[in-house]
Amino acid sequence: MNNTDAVLWIAIFLIFIVWYVLVMVQSYLSYGTAYRWAKGGGDNGLALVGWLLVFGAASLIPGLGLYFWFKYRHLNDSLGICVRCGNKLPSIGQFCNYCGSKFR
Ligand SMILES: [Zn+2]
């Protein structure tokens, strides 16, 4: 293996790490997006699994998962759904009971 090869492999490795981290972040966010989509159509376990698959697959593409999360993060604001995790917000206090995110 010569120097050029080494640089190439390091570059590929770094790109892979960046991609992997993005996918991890996006798959985490995709749970929230899937929850918001499922709850928007009423509480439906089957719909939730379906949306988890859809947004889970989307999170494999860097940027796409973040895009969906950003676009739909306020989808159910009027329903009192947590922006980050998609669970129902408590009527008192300022933090989500499930993920601790501040909502007031
Ligand atoms: Zn939450």
Summarize the structure.
Helix content is 59%, strand content 0%.
Please identify the structural class as seen in this structure.
Answer: mainly alpha
Order of helices and strands: HHH
Mean pLDDT: 84
**Share of residues in helices:** 55-70%
Give the count of helical stretches. Answer: 3
| Largest beta-sheet characterization | none
Quantity of strands, as a count = 0
Q: Which assembly state applies to the chains in this document?
A: single chain
Shape: elongated
Distance between the termini: 57 Å
Low-pLDDT runs of 5+ residues are none
The unique ligands bound to this protein are: zinc ion
Nearest-angstrom radius of gyration?
A: 18 Å
Percent in strands: under 5%
What are the defining features of this structure?
single chain, 104 residues, mainly alpha, binds zinc ion
Please give a structural write-up.
The protein has 104 residues and is mostly helical. It has a domain at 3-72. It is built from three helices and no strands. Helix 1 packs antiparallel against helix 2 and helix 1 packs parallel to helix 3. The longest helix is centred in the N-terminal third of the chain and has 38 residues, at 3-40. It is elongated, with a radius of gyration of 18 Å. It starts with a helix and ends in a 32-residue tail after the last helix. 25% of the residues are buried. The mean pLDDT is 84. The protein binds zinc ion. The site of zinc ion (ZN) has 8 residues, from loops.
